[in-house]
Structure formats: C-alpha cells, structure tokens
Write a structure and sequence with these properties.
elongated, alpha+beta, YefM-like fold, 3 strands
Length: about 80
C-alpha cells in the first residue's frame, strides 16, 4: 500500500487514479499525519455479487403501503395547450 498526503494525492490525482485503475495499486491518504482515506479499485461490476447482496436483504414490508400513501397525495392537474 502506498501512502500519499492529501496534497500529494490532489496534485497528482490523475496519476493516482491511473495507478489504481491500471495497476491495481492501493493508496492510504493522510492529512496532518493521520490516515483519512483508503483508495483502491472499485472492482469490476459483478451480477453475482449484486444478487448475493440482495438475497441477504429482508423485504421492506412497509413499501407497498408507503407507495399507496404517496399516490393518494398526488393530484391530477389538467392543462390545455395554448391556442
């Protein structure tokens, strides 16, 4: 893992992003001597990972009721085109 100050990272941001994206490098960004951010690749999109995440979530039992309530607040405003 490479270390950069916030100033160094800001001044060379394009190069830092290239290193992360193309060479898989990882950076720890420090400010005033303390670590404040960990910069690494976001990884490639993966449908399996999304499905696994969704499987681990419980359904929102209030969702349908909340949608009905919001729809009941809507009013239909009819407008005519100017002649």
């Amino acid at each position: 893992m490479k270390r950069r100050t916030a100033t160094e990272a800001a001044r060379g941001f394009s190069e830092v992003l290239d290193a992360v994206e193309h060479r898989g490098e990882v950076f720890m960004i420090h400010r005033r001597g303390r670590p404040v951010a960990h910069l690494r690749s976001a990884g490639k999109p993966n449908g399996r990972a999304v499905k696994a995440l969704l499987r681990g979530m419980s359904p929102d039992t209030d969702w349908a009721r909340e949608v009905r309530e919001m729809r009941s607040l809507l009013t239909l405003e009819e407008r005519s085109w100017p002649d």
